[in-house]
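ok so for the tutorial part 2 we go from a plain amino acid sequence to predicted structure tokens. step 1 is just haveing the sequence, like this:
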Amino acid sequence: MGLAGLIIFSLNLQNAGIAIIGLLPAGLPTLHWPTIPRAHLGELLGAGAGLALISFSSAILTARSFAAKNRYEIDADREFTALGMANIAAGVFTAHGWRARIPNG
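step 2 — the prediction. this is what the tokens look like for a chain of 105 residues:
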């Protein structure tokens, strides 16, 4: 941030028509439950179900890959619960949802 501020100040970018976002709020985001308009609920549930299926499949494939490599057992129900709780927490704290990535090799 210091380098960006120095560049903006030294090149006088704020007066050259380049948008500067200004100060960002400090600290952690506040905890709040997101509101969803009823008109969008059906649309969001369909898309959310598809994303949940893809994300869960990816997480299980990743977990099984690590389990096979390190010789331990996984429980799909516990993985599903953990993934759901992580995504709920991310939503409440206005963060991005969690997803898994299939390891390469």
